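Translate structure to sequence.
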C-alpha cells in the first residue's frame, strides 16, 4: 500500500480543519484574515457524541457564508467532490470567493494519477491574422500573428527532478468535470526573500472563467514523481517518490479580471491574460520550511513584456497528461517565440512550437537563463504542435503584487 494512502475517516479532525478554515477565510474578495480573530472551538466541539452540526458543535454564528460546509455530512460531500449532486452551473456562478480548506490525504497517489489534463484548445478560426502591427509585422508586436511555428518535440526532463533548477510541479484541482491537473512553478516573493510560498500557473487552472467560479481542493505538488516512474509504478510508490517536497494547499488564489470576465473553456477567449498566482501552505504542518526552501529554488516573474525579437528562446516546462503522454513525467520544449493574436484589443501572445498536451497548462515559460518567468502555458491546437502563453504585463503584475502583499 502506498505510504500516503487515505487514512481512516477522522470526523472530528475534519470538522476542526474545516471550521478553522472558515474562521480564517482567505477569499479573494475578503482579503487577509484577521490575526486577532478568536478561532477557539467551543466546549461542544470536544464532546464524545457530536450532533453532526458543525455550527452547533463548535459554537459558530448563524451568518457564515452560505456556500461553506456546515455539517459533517456536508463536509464529507465536500471532501468527495459531490459534483453529481449539485447543479453545476449554479455552483460555478455562486462560487465567487476562493475557499480551499486543507483535507488531509485527499490527494493520494491514485487520485493524482487519475486526474485529467485541464486544457484549452483553439483552431484556426480563433486566430486573428489580419494585417496589423506595423509594416510586414516587423514593427510593434501588438496585433501581429506570425506564421505557425514548426513543431518542437517535447523532451523529457532529466531525472531526478529534485536535483535540477526547475522548481516546477503539478497543480491539482476538483472541477465540475472531476479531478483535473495543470502545471505550475514556484516564483520568488520580494516580501519573503528565499522563503516564497507563491506559485504561478494559468488562470484556467483555478477559475472557470466568464460566468463561473473558483475550483476546489487546489493543491501544488512540487517535483512530482522526481524519479520519472511510470503510472503503474506510482500506484505503489512511497510518499517520497510521489511528492518528495510535500503537498501544498492553496490558501489564496488570484487571477486576472480579464480571465474572470472573458475566459472560456474552449477557444482563445481570455487567453491573453490567462495567469494566476497561488499562496500555498503545507498539508504537513510539522515543518516550518517554505515552499521555496522545500523545492530548492524559485524563478523571478517578469512583467515588462519584452518584445519577441529581443528574446533568444523560451523554454516551456510542464507535465503533459493527454496522449501520447500520461502525466507521469516532466517535459519541456525550447524554441524562439513568435507572435499570436487572438483578440486585437488585447496583448499579443507568445507562441512556440511544442508537442506537449493537456496537463502542461500553467507550466512556466523561462528565458534563456532559466531564471526569469515570462509566461505560462495557456492554449494550444487540437493538433498539439504549438503552445501559446500570455505576455505578463500590468494586469498579471497586479495579480502577483496582490497575493504577495497578502502573504
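Result:
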Amino acid at each position: 500500500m502506498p505510504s500516503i494512502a487515505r487514512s481512516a475517516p477522522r470526523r472530528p479532525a475534519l470538522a476542526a480543519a474545516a471550521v478553522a478554515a472558515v474562521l480564517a477565510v482567505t477569499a479573494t474578495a475578503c482579503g487577509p484574515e484577521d490575526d486577532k480573530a478568536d478561532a477557539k472551538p467551543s466546549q461542544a466541539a470536544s464532546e464524545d457524541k457530536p450532533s453532526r452540526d458543525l455550527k452547533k458543535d463548535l459554537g459558530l454564528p448563524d451568518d457564515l457564508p452560505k456556500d461553506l460546509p456546515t455539517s459533517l455530512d456536508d463536509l464529507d460531500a465536500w471532501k468527495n467532490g459531490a459534483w453529481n449532486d449539485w447543479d453545476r452551473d449554479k455552483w460555478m456562478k455562486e462560487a465567487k470567493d476562493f475557499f480551499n480548506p486543507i483535507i488531509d490525504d485527499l490527494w493520494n497517489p491514485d487520485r493524482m494519477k487519475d486526474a485529467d489534463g485541464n486544457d484549452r484548445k483553439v483552431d484556426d478560426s480563433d486566430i486573428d491574422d489580419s494585417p496589423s502591427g506595423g509594416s510586414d509585422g516587423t514593427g510593434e508586436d501588438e496585433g501581429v500573428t506570425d506564421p505557425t511555428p514548426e513543431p518542437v518535440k517535447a523532451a523529457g526532463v532529466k531525472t531526478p527532478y529534485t536535483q535540477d533548477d526547475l522548481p516546477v510541479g503539478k497543480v491539482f484541482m476538483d472541477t465540475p468535470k472531476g479531478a483535473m491537473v495543470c502545471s505550475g512553478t514556484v516564483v520568488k516573493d520580494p516580501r519573503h526573500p528565499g522563503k516564497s510560498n507563491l506559485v504561478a500557473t494559468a488562470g484556467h487552472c483555478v477559475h472557470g472563467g466568464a460566468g463561473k467560479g473558483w475550483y476546489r481542493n487546489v493543491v501544488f505538488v512540487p517535483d512530482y514523481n522526481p524519479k520519472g516512474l511510470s503510472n503503474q509504478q506510482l500506484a505503489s510508490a512511497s510518499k517520497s517518490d510521489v511528492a518528495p517536497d510535500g503537498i501544498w494547499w492553496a490558501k489564496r488564489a488570484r487571477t486576472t479580471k480579464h480571465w474572470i470576465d472573458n475566459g472560456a473553456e474552449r477557444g482563445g477567449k481570455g487567453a491573453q491574460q490567462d495567469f494566476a498566482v497561488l499562496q500555498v501552505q503545507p498539508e504537513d504542518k510539522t515543518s516550518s520550511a517554505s515552499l521555496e526552501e522545500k523545492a530548492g529554488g524559485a524563478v523571478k516573474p517578469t512583467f515588462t513584456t519584452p518584445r519577441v525579437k529581443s528574446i533568444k528562446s523560451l523554454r516551456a516546462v510542464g507535465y503533459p497528461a493527454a496522449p501520447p503522454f500520461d502525466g507521469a513525467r516532466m517535459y519541456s520544449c525550447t524554441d524562439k517565440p513568435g507572435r499570436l493574436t487572438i483578440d486585437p484589443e488585447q496583448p499579443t501572445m507568445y507562441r512556440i512550437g511544442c508537442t506537449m498536451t493537456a496537463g502542461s497548462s500553467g507550466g512556466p515559460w523561462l528565458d534563456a537563463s532559466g531564471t526569469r518567468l515570462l509566461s505560462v502555458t495557456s492554449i494550444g491546437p487540437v493538433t498539439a504542435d504549438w503552445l501559446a502563453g500570455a505576455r505578463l504585463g500590468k494586469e498579471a503584475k497586479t495579480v502577483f503584487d496582490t497575493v504577495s502583499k497578502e502573504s
